[in-house]
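REVIEWER CHECKLIST
Item 1: Sequence provided? yes
Item 2: Single chain? yes
Item 3: Sequence as submitted:
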Amino acid sequence: MPDLPKSVPRTAWYVYLYDGTEEYVTFADGLVEEIPPRTVAESGSWQFNFRHDPAGSRSYDPLEHTDRYERVVEIGRWAGRYVLREPLEAEPRYREQVPPGNPSLLVGLQPAYETPAGGVWGLVDGYDETNALPETGLTVTLDVTMLATTDDYETRDEVVADLSF
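Item 4: Structure as written out by the authors:
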């Protein structure tokens, strides 16, 4: 698992990504709406915000809010390009249909704070950007079909090994 950014805001969410060559983690400053239901093989919308730090006082991540945002939005270009099989009485299996060397649609979303809901591993179905003032903050909504919880699988490699076909 990649190193987590240090001292993130209490409201932050870690976003685990794979860019086609390496796994990395960034974070969103917060989840705008409530946590979607965590139902395997169901899609939920996760609206994240990325805020500008005008004082430059953040020491937890060297990336500006725009860079962190772009890392997440980059996967939107390939959103929905996967096949999902839902066998009876078994966990769903998936296969991505993204050309090699491009970002993976498999993402991990995990709160940086304690919550009973916990995190999820899922596939990005779609995304939406709604940004009136990008200088101060950016918002992206990821539509994600849940495959498993982060309690079930700690790493991306475990998810790929168990659930891809």
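Item 5: Key structural point noted by reviewer: The longest helix spans residues 65-73.
Item 6: Recommendation: ____
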